[in-house]
Design brief:
The chain is 64% helix and 5% strand. It has 502 residues and is mainly alpha-helical. The protein has two domains: 348 residues, no CATH class; 103 residues, no CATH class. Strands 2-1-3-5-4 form a five-stranded mixed β-sheet. The termini are far apart.
């Protein structure tokens, strides 16, 4: 019921108020996922450098139905969020109690970050749903069933094909089956379970691995080692653009990144262990809930959890540990919200606390739980009210005005821009605004890239300040002809007028 109501309410909110994607996470949606989905519909699967093909495939299917990729992205995320709530409740109900599962699921549903990525078009919530589904089929029964293990393995495999940090399940399942022995099996049966599960997981990802091997020369092709290198060598030292456009080319493999400074690598992981956990308590949950998470951890150390509960927490811990290799982001920890909530509820259902009763015999823990839910919901409303429409509202305006005045004859032409949004709404091909220092270099790059248009707005002004004159169409060089613009905020679409390019 919660999942169904959540889908209806959040679909309405997302489609009504989230008009254009933001300049953060949804940059990848416009830049990578939509073009990849179009390629899939055209019969060709692109190999993206940081993620697998699952999300663009899902987006392509929904896009065929809705005929609008951005709205499809919102619906896909909202549907995935609803599945997360369903799987989270059903999993926690089996591991703990139905009332605790209800509170934990409600805390998840009203969490500010969870709500934000419910209407955000991107991989985060879809990946979260697949991980939640795999956890459900892993923990829903005390006894081992082959059907559950098969579904778990396939769901985990598809999660990996959505985001490569889904590889955490390989370590998690090995610990849960071999060391914790969740199903209380003999040694031979434990190894049989583990081998079967990992074998199905590998079989699920093998077609993609073979395709990558043929096209790129590596079964596990990806360049996520560049994100690790950023965390180690660039974060807080140089700009994002300088790293990706200059420094990133110095790294070619994960071993190279690690061996460049093994002590720094180890130190970064260790320091992230503390920093990521504190950030989860502070940014993901809020300290009002985080203090109960810490209390719950201490109580579980004193009062040991059951084997199945410990297995669930181990599953979450392995998920947490794989994130220590990269920079922190609340969205990466979405799956951990119900895990943290179940830890907090250990403190709230503590026997000594249960002796305290309020009017009509209300359990003190229950009373505090609903205070936490109300508090989290209030924070979520405040945060998302300010952020749901934070995308560049000038982009659709410029695109609509351009089409109205000049038609659609230039679809597919190359446009230079720092962010891909304008290219999506004009149906043009984006090329990154060159990382150059002066007008002559910019002109040379425009010619080299065969650019027909150039877009300059506040994002470009922040990252390419040497060309701030372009915010005023009257001050642009002669080879850039202003086509349409907005004043507040300032943004201008220029046509590149160079001999041989017109």
């Amino acid at each position: 019921m919660i999942a169904g109501v959540y889908f209806v309410v959040m679909s309405y909110i997302g489609l009504k108020y989230h008009i254009v994607g933001d300049y953060n996470v949804e940059t990848d949606f416009y830049w990578l996922y939509v073009p990849n989905a179009k390629e899939i519909l055209g019969g060709h699967v692109l190999i993206e450098e940081f993620r697998g093909p699952a999300y663009p495939a899902f987006l392509a299917v929904v896009g065929v139905v809705l005929k609008d990729f951005f709205r499809s992205g919102i619906i896909l995320s909202t549907l995935a969020a609803s599945f997360v709530l369903f799987f989270a409740f059903e999993t926690l109900k089996k591991l703990f109690r139905a009332d605790l599962a209800l509170v934990a699921t409600t805390l998840t549903a009203v969490n500010a970050t969870f709500v934000q990525y419910t209407y955000t078009a991107g991989t985060d919530m879809v990946f979260n749903a697949l991980v939640a589904a795999s956890a459900f089929f892993l923990f829903r029964k005390e006894e081992r069933t082959k059907s559950d293990l098969v579904i778990f393995s396939v769901a985990a495999g598809v999660a990996y094909l959505t985001r490569y940090n889904g590889i955490f399940v390989v370590v998690a399942i090995s610990i849960i089956f071999l060391l914790l022995n969740q199903h209380r099996l003999a040694l031979r049966e434990k190894f049989k379970n583990t081998t079967m599960t990992l074998g199905i997981f590998l079989a699920t990802i093998t077609p993609w691995g073979i395709y990558c091997l043929i096209e790129k020369g590596s079964f596990f092709y990806n360049r996520n080692y560049l994100n690790i290198a950023y965390e180690m060598f660039a974060k807080g030292k140089i700009s994002w653009d300088q790293y990706w456009m200059v420094e990133a080319s110095k790294f070619s493999s994960l071993p190279q990144v690690i061996l460049a400074d093994p002590a720094l690598f180890a130190g970064t992981v260790v320091s992230n262990l503390y920093e990521h956990f504190v950030n989860d308590l502070r940014l993901l949950l809020g300290f009002h809930l985080g203090v109960f998470v810490v209390a719950g951890i201490f109580l579980y150390i004193k009062e040991k959890p059951t084997t199945r509960q410990l297995s669930y927490f181990t599953f979450g811990l392995c998920f947490f540990l794989v994130l220590l290799l990269v920079f922190y982001g609340e969205r990466f920890s979405l799956f951990l919200i119900p895990v943290y909530a179940s830890l907090a509820l250990k403190a709230l259902s503590w026997q000594r606390l249960s002796r305290l009763r309020f009017w009509n015999g209300v359990h003190a823990g229950a009373f505090v739980s609903w205070i936490l839910i109300t508090w989290s919901a209030a924070d979520s409303i405040t945060f998302n009210k300010a952020n749901i429409n934070s995308g560049p509202q000038e982009i659709p305006v410029i695109a609509e005005t351009f089409r109205k005045n000049y038609g659609d004859s230039d679809r597919g032409k190359i446009i230079l821009t720092r962010k891909p949004h304008i290219a999506y709404y004009l149906d043009m091909t984006m090329r990154t605004f060159p990382y150059v220092d002066n007008w002559e270099e910019l002109k040379a790059e425009a010619r080299s890239l065969h650019a027909s248009y150039l877009f300059y707005g506040m994002m470009e002004a922040g990252l390419r300040p040497q060309f701030r004159e372009l915010l005023d169409p009257r001050r642009a060089p002669e080879w850039l002809k202003p086509m349409t613009y907005t004043v507040s905020p300032p943004a201008v679409l220029y046509k590149v007028s160079l001999p041989g390019l017109e």
